[in-house]
Amino acid sequence: MSQDYTDSFPVTGKPSEDIIDISENFETLRSSFSGTTFPSSPVPATGQPCWRTDRGLDADTGKTGKMYIYSGNTSLGETGWITEEEFSSIAQEVINSRGSKASLDARLDVITNEDGTLKDSVAVNNSEWVTTGLTDTYVSTTSFTVEGDQTDIFAIDKRIKANLSASTVYSEITNSVFTTLTTVTIADAVLDNTLTSIQPSLINPIDNDGSMTAKMVGALDLTSNQTIDGIKTFSVSPIVPTATLGDDSTKAASTAFVLANSSNSIALPTKTSPSSITVDGTLMTLSSPVAGTDYYFSKTAIQTVKDTNTVGGFHYGLVAEAEAVSGNKTEADMVEIRGINAHSIWTNWFRPIANPEGMVYIGGKWYDIYLLNSEHITNGTSKALATIAGGTPDYGRAIPKIPLAFGGDGSTNYGKFTWFQACEIAKSHSKELISYAEFPTIAYGVVEGTDCSSLEVVQGRVEHYATLTSKYGIEQATGVQYVWGADANAVPDCPTWQAVTDGRGSIYAKASGLINAVKLGGDRSDGVHAGSRNSYWFHPVWGSGLCFGCRFSCSHKTTI
């Protein structure tokens, strides 16, 4: 064995002694630093060899010995010493293919049997649950062990399926640690000593670009504005309005409700009485409800303002708690809309894409309870006791303000109210106009063929008329203010270019102006013509008038 090496001369200043040291260096180099340990002094240089006389065995000669090369990377091999074969590029590729496992064989064992067959055939494994072939040992109701380092298979936040002798249970991994075994801790106390196997999900947690579960989301920091995997998230604090879509109100769609605190995930609450709801098994009652008001709730209490514990909300409407049946509504309909409107209940996981305040869920979409008001920038589009938006400031109406997203300054109104402007206001609140196909269904329940002319308490105010309220609690549904509908059509009869868009391009249509948009429901003077199927197709999209108003809808939000 020779590992003595002197890296600096002269050592003693005596030539005869230095010659001996040089001779020993030659012997060390000639024997490739041979020995039963790796040389450490002086510090080895990258590429330095070491012939380990205590390693390897040649089956033909019976001689031992194995060549190692110092890589310079102490994380490789044995403090940087790797075999001569491992030093080649091909060998490095093989090493890298081990992944987080100790060997390539250990990695292959995750999916293949020793004979090379898959542990689960492609045809059989048609679910998200993986059969690992590992031995899973019960430790407690919330933990189990697996042989070897399996922390990559049983990753924190991943879902698992536990097979017990008499049942199957599910949970999520909260901790995974390797010592001599891999000890896995799960979120729910569902295991028992009849455990037969654990199947981890194919789907990785979000950090590995997989799907999310409630607890995975709960692990994310959504308390500040940030981007996670390309998805923009927002804080629970209102965002200051700017001239962008959805920002015409501090309560518009840009204010985040979704996933503010995922650990508060609940099933959709139910209305229990005109003034109470049941949230996650807890009965909550309004003590002094105010008609036409939006309320919120946590898992433990009703709230008047939103905070970090808010998980949803509802609207306490203008329909009195003891109001009698009217129109085509039934007693069952009235139970749903007296006091708390059952159709207005939303949660962070069941809600419209827009601001949920003052909206009801009907057949897969959300609709404003109230007619559009002129101060929609500050009030939102659905506000009780506000001023009805119209094309002229008569009979108590007021012309709506221009949205910030379309050049408004918060105080200037349009000067009129055309179909174009109704579309702009809707878009600025992440909403849309209602089609004629939808309107008769959401307005159903009113007294047909009547208007509000004899019912008005305050002209031009968003208020309650029992006979003109639909079965879903939509107020002033008919016979008060025509609402611009989504449908528009043109009559192709001798068309010409017409400059009727306020300088924003021209319309090629009949000279007499027939490119019309529908108006729905009837107005305050339509009498027998008003009703849930009323439609008026005469006015062009650039028309405006006293009883030209609007009501909006929006899509349902799909959340995790």
DSSP helical segment count: 8
- Taking all Cα atoms into account, the compactness measure Rg is 37 Å
The structural class is alpha+beta
Strand order of the largest sheet: 4-5-8-7-6-9
Q: How many E strands? A: 29
Strand content: 15-25%
The major pleated sheet works out as: 6 strands, antiparallel
Name some characteristics of this structure.
560 residues; Elongation Factor Tu (Ef-tu), domain 3; five-stranded antiparallel sheet; 8 helices; 11% helix
Question: Summary?
Answer:
The chain has helices spanning 15-30, 89-96, 104-108, 214-218, 331-337, 376-379, 419-428, 439-442; strands spanning 49-52, 66-70, 81-83, 136-140, 143-147, 159-163, 168-178, 181-186, 197-200, 226-228, 231-233, 270-273, 276-279, 282-285, 293-297, 302-303, 312-316, 346-347, 351-352, 359-362, 365-368, 432-433, 482-490, 495-498, 507-510, 515-520, 535-536, 548-549, 552-557. It is α+β, with helices and mostly antiparallel strands and 560 residues long. The longest helix is centred in the N-terminal third of the chain and has 16 residues, at 15-30.
